[in-house]
Design a protein that fits this description.
Length: 400
């Protein structure tokens, strides 16, 4: 069966192809020659060939004429079809990368553009997958995608977690679908630490594999120490710290359900005698701990994205600074601050400036001892800066 079909052309404006030639996969609506190829002539999710103003073929893409990113290239071969075979080959390629690095089947299996499957995210939990589809083009191929996952991995079950905000940008409905048999809770292992997460209704795909490498680095610093894990969710940082020998760990989260997961993980790893959970908003809890004159050897800050859009930049940077100042005030002399961010719009250098400024404001000296990003199961597409979003910076904070 042929992988190629005939696609209509999407013609770009003059000189609009430079970014595409440099490896980028997105076409913005203002880059399209709408006189020659009006966007309203296309159907949502339709497959097209992206063509330069000079008639040169740039690749095959899916289109959403209503979205700002109106086309996403999935192949540099014109007329490439989104067939079951195509998806299976892409998934096999993604799987080979993960299996080359990880010795257990717990990782992000497919990371969208970086795995050349724009709009598809998949996390693996042993025999189960949690999959998200974020674009109209991939939604139109849902059956082919699920068939390919089943062919390559033969999972016992798949959760299609299409209830995330990214779909609203593509004017797609929100829903969850379960294929096969999936238990209420999924098990995973990370850095020799065991966790239990809900198969449905958790945050995003249920777990945040992206900080795995940084959590492994943190483990080198916590033996015999007191640790404060803020925005703990299911205890990725805090329970790992306890397993790696921390004397005591305090986990803070606004969600009671998240803290229930912390307690489950603590019991699973037999460290529940060293973990305390505090429910509440992070800033409020940090201020309470300061008032109580509590001090910790290590403070971990892993907040949600404060800067989701560029217009959030100023307020978001202020929020990061305020949070880091509160954390520094809770550190013992020569304590370790782990300052993390998942805001794509916050550059690593800006986070460094924020921590430096917070330390200076409190008359502390800061030494950057480790700077990390996302793990190899979240590969960065070198032409798409949006695929590089994780920052984790470790500082020793000293009194003057």
């Amino acid at each position: 069966m042929s992988n190629t079909v005939s696609h209509p052309s999407l013609i770009l404006n003059k000189n609009a192809e430079k970014r595409i030639r440099q490896g980028h996969l997105w076409v913005f609506s203002n880059e399209v020659d709408t006189k020659k190829t009006p966007l309203n002539n296309f159907e949502m999710g339709q497959q097209v060939n992206v063509v330069s103003a000079k008639g040169q073929q740039l690749g095959a893409a899916t289109i959403n004429p209503q979205a700002l990113i109106c086309a996403r290239i999935f192949s540099r071969t014109a007329d490439q079809g989104l067939t079951k075979r195509f998806f299976a080959k892409r998934i096999e390629r993604a799987l080979s990368l993960r299996e080359a690095y990880f010795d257990q089947p717990f990782y992000r299996l497919v990371y969208g553009d970086s795995d050349f499957l724009p709009g598809v995210i998949a996390d693996r939990y042993g025999d189960y997958l949690v999959v998200q589809i974020a674009t109209a083009g991939m939604e139109a191929c849902k059956d082919e995608i699920l068939h390919a996952f089943n062919k390559v991995l033969e999972p016992k079950g798949i959760v299609l977690a299409n209830d995330h905000s990214a779909r609203t940008l593509e004017y797609l409905p929100s829903y969850t679908e379960v294929i096969g048999e999936v238990p209420e809770y999924l098990q995973l292992e990370e850095n020799n630490t065991h966790f239990t997460i809900p198969s449905q209704g958790g945050q995003k795909t249920g777990w945040f594999y992206d900080h795995r490498i940084n959590r492994a680095e943190m483990a080198k610093w916590v033996k015999g120490k007191s640790v404060l894990d803020v925005f703990s969710y299911a205890g990725g940082w805090g329970v790992t710290a306890a397993v790696k020998g921390a004397q005591s760990v305090t986990c803070v989260d606004v969600s009671a359900k998240a803290l229930d997961l912390v307690e489950k993980a603590a019991e699973l790893n037999k460290v529940d005698d060293r973990i305390l959970a505090i429910e509440g908003k992070a800033v409020h809890v940090l201020k309470m701990l300061i008032d109580e004159e509590q001090k910790y050897d290590v403070v971990v800050l892993d907040p949600p994205a404060f800067i989701k859009r560029k217009k959030d930049q100023k307020a978001g940077e202020a929020a990061y600074r305020h949070l880091n100042e509160l954390a520094i005030r809770l550190l013992k002399r020569d304590g370790l601050l782990v300052s993390a961010s998942c805001s794509m719009h916050l550059a690593a250098d800006t986070l460094t400036d924020i921590v430096r400024g917070a330390a200076m404001h409190l008359d502390r000296d800061a030494q950057l001892v480790y700077s990390g990003s996302q793990g190899p199961d979240h590969p960065r597409h070198p032409a798409i800066e949006q695929t590089n979003y994780i920052k984790a910076q470790f500082y020793r904070i000293s009194h003057r």
